[in-house]
Amino acid sequence: MSKVENRFRDKLTGGDQFVVSVELVPTRGMMRKGFEELVAFTEAALDYGKIDALSLTDNPGGNPRLAPDVLGLDILYRGMSPLVHLTCKDHNRNGLESRAFQLNRMGIENVLALTGDYPVDGYRGVAKPSFDLDSVSLVRMLADMNRGLQAPTPRPGKFLTLEPTDFYIGASVSPFKQQRAELLGQYFKLEKKISNGAGFIITQLGYDMRKFDELLRYLRLRETEVPVLGNVYVLHRFVSKIMNRNQVPGCVVTDELLAFVDKHGASPDKGKAAFIDLAAKQVAIMKGLGFRGAHIGGFGLSFEDKRKVIDTAEQIGADWQGCVKELLYPQADEYYFFERDPETGLSTDKPARTARKKALGPRIEFELMKFVHDRFFEPDSAGFRIARGVCACIDRNETAVNAFGSVEKAIKYVMNNCQGCGDCSLAELAFLCPESGCAKGLRNGPCGGSFQGICELEDRKCFWMRVVKRWDKENKLDKVRRPEPVYCNAALRDSSSWLNYYLGRDHAGVGKEEEREKKK
Fold first, then answer.
1. What is the pLDDT of residues 327-362, one digit of tens each?
2. What is the bridge-based pairing of β-strands 200-203 and 228-234?
3. Which of 477, 482, 446, 448 is nearest to 464 (CA)?
4. Which of 9, 233, 348, 393 is 20 to 30 A from 79 in CA distance terms?
5. What's the domain range around 371?
6. Any residues with CB less than 8 A from the CB of 9 and at least 6 apart, and which?
7. Per-residue confidence at 31, pLDDT binned at 50, 70, 90?
């Protein structure tokens, strides 16, 4: 098969054209009716000519579905650009690399790299998630594959450069966060995704146009240029109720918006006309704000429904500003990064003054860990040099290693609820353990699933919100912004993280530069 034009990529990278992608959700199993509807939708989209990509979700909401790859290939064969979602919940890094090479072999270029929702269903019970990588480290892996992945050979120190792939890598962000620490975590992680190779961004789902506006203003403030597509989900009464109860992670439908949905949902057409009109206004506003495109989805919508969204948005055109106040649905006491513009209802370019609540006194374990870290774990400290020498001696004796590891685990379990990963990130994460504190064990930033500071599993506070708050109090938010992704090495589990740190075996790589210099 000859190479199919990647219209989605060409339009986003080749000018200022407004791009439209439409999201489709695969069925569970290869249902003939669902497949026939997909084929019909693809052919109708090709004839219509105003849809640039069909986006295929990857087990959305943590439920099993037909893999998007095979459907993406069918879409590609028919001459349309597929946008395949690639999530980290069901595959470890080897599985993700394998699947990425498979997509490359198929000729599928557009990939949306996501952490993924925590599984809620599966064959004979809930599936065990992976989350070996997250969205940041997955973006980086795909970018490295584009450069030609360096694969180790049987000969120590020798690497083979694999044939480069040609992925157009996308990522997501959720600006619809109620609390300051939640929102900052999203923005900081977005910067990491972009610096590690994300070529375009698609927002998560919300209905507050001021938050959409702020996202673009934040990127301009950070002098970051990347095409952003706004997520437009056509409301549906049943789905809106689920989202309002926070049962679809990252999707925000407020009580006020739900009242709007219920009012129109009681009409003879169950609100479809009103909901399509509102979605069209969202698309028009996004184009007016400077978004590079719209990503349109919805439950139970036909091709004609989605076509009407696009056509109505074009009719609104330059009158988009008059629609803004119909789409301002903030959460109660929501934090905004910028000052409000009273005339438009959107934001200005002036960052908001933060009225901080009086902080509680420092936690003893945090202050103690910080004290010890500064004196013995910082590479330029005198204590570090002594500790590294001691660890080098301990590492030569198996009995000493076991005894040392037992002492370390006991201390860190009491102080940090350590889970013994052997590749420790405590110093980077405000001395909070991601293995025990985060349901997904994320080390490079928050997922988009938290709601009003609570994890999507609703069993704890969002781990990353706690990290951001601690470093914010210390005026060390740059620690959250560090662009280099952390990859936890599973080979180090149940070994001493202190020995691994001092001897350069963990992700921190302390001492590896010195080793390379010696080899020269």
1. 999 999 999 999 999 999 999 999 998 765 555 555
2. parallel
3. 446
4. 233
5. 364-519
6. 81, 109, 110, 168
7. low
Its pTM stands at 0.94
Q: Are residues 330 and 383 in the same domain?
A: no
Regarding whether 319 and 217 lie in a shared domain, the answer is yes
Q: What is the mean pLDDT of residues 54-71?
A: 90
Tell me, yes or no, whether 358 lies in a domain.
Answer: no
Residue 356 lies in a domain: no
Helix, strand and coil content of the chain, in percent to the nearest 5, comes to 45, 10, 40
Residue-wise pLDDT for 217-260, tens only, equals 999 999 999 999 999 999 999 999 999 998 899 899 999 999 99
Q: Which DSSP symbol is given to 60? A: G
Final residue belonging to a domain, choices 299, 323, 351: 351
Q: What is the pLDDT of residues 40-53, one digit of tens each?
A: 999 999 999 999 99
Residue corresponding to tokens 């146009």: 209
Q: Do 213 and 323 belong together in one domain?
A: yes
pLDDT given for residue 359 in this prediction: 54
Q: What pLDDT digit, counting tens, does each position of 384-405 carry?
A: 999 999 999 999 999 999 999 9
> Which of 292, 326, 351 is the endpoint of a domain?
351
Percentage of residues in the chain having pLDDT higher than 70: 95
Q: What is the pLDDT of residue 515?
A: 45
Q: Do both 411 and 325 map to the same domain?
A: no
* Distances in whole angstroms, Cα of residue 361 to Cα of each of 463, 475, 497: 19, 16, 29
Q: Residue 229 sits in a domain of what CATH number?
A: 3.20.20.220
Q: Do 278 and 327 form a contact (C-beta atoms < 8 A)?
A: yes
What is the crossing angle of helices 398-416 and 364-376, to 10°? 140
Domain count for the chain: 2
Question: Residue 281: CA atoms inside 13 Å, Cβ hemisphere, count?
Answer: 18
50 and 92 inside one domain: yes
166 and 270 belong to one structural domain: yes
Residue of 236, 243, 240, 241 lying closest to 273 (CA atoms): 236
What local confidence, expressed as pLDDT, does residue 109 receive? 97
Reduced to 3 states (helix: H, G, I; strand: E, B; else coil), residue 293 is: strand
Q: What does the pLDDT average to over 291-311?
A: 96
Q: Which residue in 371, 339, 441, 366 sits closest to 128, CA to CA?
A: 441
Answer yes or no: is 359 within a domain: no
First to last CA, the chain: 48
Instruction: Single out the residue of 86, 77, 90, 85 nearest to residue 38, CA to CA.
Output: 77
Token pair of 480 as six digits: 């959250």
2 assigned to some structural domain: no
- Per-residue pLDDT, 36: 82
Q: Tell me, yes or no, whether 342 and 422 share the same domain.
A: no
Least Cα distance to 180 among 346, 360, 354 occurs for 354
Contact 451, 190 (CB under 8 A): no
Q: Which residues pair with 114 in a beta bridge?
A: 87
Q: Which residue has the higher pLDDT, 59 or 203?
A: 203
